[in-house]
Design a protein that fits this description.
The structure is a homotetramer of 297-residue chains. Chain A has 13 helices and nine strands. By secondary structure, chain A is an alpha/beta fold. The first copy, chain A, has two domains: 161 residues, 3-Layer(aba) Sandwich (Rossmann fold); 121 residues, N-(1-d-carboxylethyl)-l-norvaline Dehydrogenase, domain 2, CATH 1.10.1040. In chain A, β2, α2 and β3 form a beta-alpha-beta unit.
Chain lengths: 297, 297, 297, 297
């Protein structure tokens, strides 16, 4: 495997993902708005692109791991955008958490220029990315999915193919994040009820997360919430709200009420109004505790 | 272990639990309002009590596995109730899903008569009871808990001790059921969103329940809801509503809002209004599907 | 009009209602658990009953205005209860806010003893009761309704007949209280949104309550919430919660989800958890303000 | 009053509003995408503009009454937009229901070009517009507000000034629509509960809307919902959803949870998923009835 690959977006997730590609022996040209973030990769042999567009080469593969729909769209379109740079035969491997509709729109935009857009968002926190253990969901044109496969294998533990609709992988990513945040809210409410009833919250968490709910997701969040260990944030509340709003927007476009997402959105806003934007998103638990009249030290 | 034990309530759960005691070599005297239900146990050596009260002997242990607070209370109190029959040194091992407040009230009632009330509700569906693999949560007076330990070991896989407050085990049972029903609702909404967006719901369920949510609870409910296999009911919706209302009542008494329980209650009512009382409680998913405009065959 | 009437329950509402009967020239025998509350009526010519039961006379009319289902039931049934005292031809005019099911149950109980139960709950705060301007909703047997008509005319401004089902008037009373508390919540959320957006909340309230929402209910609550004038309470939050829970119980019994009532219940609990039981129920607005991060002086 | 005024957007509301200006003696140049809609105004003396931009004259006043933020923004900005046409001294009187943020953004855009943006959304259905009885809320620069005053007086019954923030009037308009839709939902749930309990829904509506809730808003919606007279739509459900989403977006931007708006949004989606986009927005009541298991003929 010696293809050249571009990688744009070196945040908490992008950085270890790009590193995984380097470690797999690929030649990687990286770009990040804050250039200093690229340093650790340059040491490992990455090349630095002078602009986002330059990370893409004609007919090559470029990976994007950026903040949101707006950032992704502005990188992609226009005369100096990624689609124009990639051109015929190029592949845009879009791994950010974005809306299905932007994926469908950009897939069409690429198709008109001979390049291909593949959506491949990931599940897992930074530690999992560092261990190359991400779960990846992918959708798009079969040939392009086959060609990016070695990259996915380098970054992740398992890839799930959702078919050809370029928005499908994003739908599943949003559904997954919705499941996570619903679980956080349920843990929060359950522990508030237990604690106010006089139970030891650690005992409650230990019982439930070793029996009914013996999966890493619950174990992790039970632990965080019992310890109220919301800093440093693995995933900031502000970003969590962004994802919940993507879920709700998808619900709006497809005419699907998602009342648990509505509730979690309102919970997040009440926490953000109290200045908790930079805590981990599981800190929405603080709202449930306060509503129960439980003092938080 | 050759103590005599009484067992009252031979429903879907009580029957295999009483059988487990017999298999462990205990002498068990059983009672059920519908007497025919006791037949399979008589064959295995159980004795039949002519009335609920007669299942209890002075200073002995009696297990109750009955429908609700009202049934439990009417069995226990009064001149011919269990407390009076058990008397000094007797133990009432209350394994039903009831409110913490009835447990606290009956514990006091027993204490005034020299007997001891121990709350020990269980987690697990009938299959798990048959396999003696229930998870049991217990709370109450230490000496009584020690004395019933062999019974618990016969019926369950693991017992979690929540301390001396006789209501504590019931609180945890309710919190656990709340977590389960919240997960069912989240699965329902997530799958509705995915399906309406054009994804294959089985693929979505397979991905999520083998990664983030790889625990038996999610695997089971994802499967049930994907297949819409709501009959025969493992746990009827009507009973599910009863438990959610216990959660909300506890919230009301302790001044703890539990908005997810409120939402699930409303969801359950909308399903019950459509005549689904005898389906499995996971059939609340049908409401989420209908609200998304998805045709259910 | 010279009939003898008993009146039980001299709280904020019962006192001015009984006074209205006296002023209309009726002979009124009153009872209240805290006897001192009766003093102002004795001055006006009321007689004092030594017990609740003694307020009722054979074949007479007794009015009850008590706290809840439990209080009403315990007054009514039993050998020394109101039904037994009233006997053949007697009428129990039940004006408290209670559940439709207790009304139906007590109506049957009375019927078996030859007496008649009429439900006639009222709308209006104490000031309105003092002015004999209550709105009364009534249901039950026609002959009894005709016989109590002069009492209703003395206490209220208008009476609305809901037919023969003794629970019907209670249903309407609960629906009405539900409408009120939903309006309070909507006002609270709307003002929080306006204030956080930088608008003058008094200007917002003035505009809406002189145009779209120009009815006394909105004008009153807009004013209270803008001024945050939650003390003294016209109707305490704790009692408001009781009524919302009656709404939800009725929904549960009839299989009707009432999600706005669920939401208001959760809102009330969060406020009660912060120690606001004795504020006016419109103080649930404080929760909406806090969730918006608005400082309350 | 003989100034020239442009008017863009001749929908259900725009048409009678423009007619009111003509009747007040103003010279009005109108534009509508579907040109035929202008005919009734041309008969009354209006001039037709060949394009939206041509409805605006240098230093003049142009009124816009268009569908949404996007339509408003695209009309306003750019070399051929309204701001460029109006130029120094011109006024853009923006009467559509749009977001506060687009008003603030366009106010700045205008200011940079010497023109002034004034937000003046209206309350009232088409009948009220025809009767020149709209309630108007206005905010923006004082001089411009004074200059447009005669137009407002011609179209409306009363104008409420919210100060200089050009977004303030839009905030109040959204809060008002939120209050309306919350009332519709409360009416829907209340009537479902009453009907399922066996009451005559018309009697319930008659009682409540002549007492507690004796204001035109409730009287109108009680009547519509009792009669299930959702066609023809006064205001389509689809547009109602748009406004609720503007409320939620404002909540999101200002960090204010508005849980009743979340609930109504979910309710609207469930109705839209059943194909009710063109019914009146009060048809969200159908969802509450269905959830109660009430058959709708």
């Amino acid at each position: 495997m010696n293809a050249e690959v571009g990688f744009i977006g070196l945040g908490n997730m992008g950085l270890p993902m790009a590193a995984a590609l380097l470690e797999a022996g690929l030649t990687v040209t990286v770009f990040n708005r804050t250039a200093a973030k690229a340093e650790p990769l340059l040491v490992k042999g990455a090349k630095r692109a002078a602009s986002a567009a330059e990370a893409a080469t004609a007919g090559g593969i470029v990976v994007t791991m950026v903040a949101d729909d707006t950032a992704l769209e502005s990188l992609t379109i226009g005369d100096h955008g990624l689609a124009a740079r990639l051109g015929k035969g190029g592949i845009h491997l879009s791994m950010s958490t974005v809306s299905p509709s932007i994926s469908r729109k950009l897939a069409e935009y690429h198709a008109q220029r001979g390049s291909t857009y593949v959506a491949a968002p990931v599940f897992g926190r930074p530690e999992r990315a560092q261990a190359h253990q991400l779960w990846i969901v992918i959708s798009g044109a079969p040939a392009a999915k086959a060609r990016v496969r070695p990259l996915l294998d380098a970054m992740g533990r398992q890839t799930f193919d959702l078919g050809e609709d370029p928005g499908a992988a994003n739908v599943l990513k949003l559904v997954g994040n919705f499941m996570i945040v619903s679980a956080i809210e349920a843990i929060s409410e359950g522990l508030a009820l237990a604690e106010k009833s006089g139970l030891d919250r650690a005992a409650v968490a230990a019982m439930l997360s070793s029996t009914l709910l013996a999966c890493p997701l619950y174990q992790g969040y039970f632990n965080t919430i019992v310890k109220r260990a919301f800093e440093p944030a693995g995933f900031k509340m502000q970003l969590g709200l962004k994802d919940v709003e993507l879920v709700l927007r998808l619900g709006s476009e497809t005419r699907v009420p998602v009342p648990m997402a509505s509730m979690v959105r309102d919970r997040a806003l009440a926490n953000l109004a109290r200045g908790r934007a930079d805590l981990d998103w599981s800190a929405i638990a603080l709202g449930a505790l306060e509503d129960a009249g439980i003092k938080i030290s």
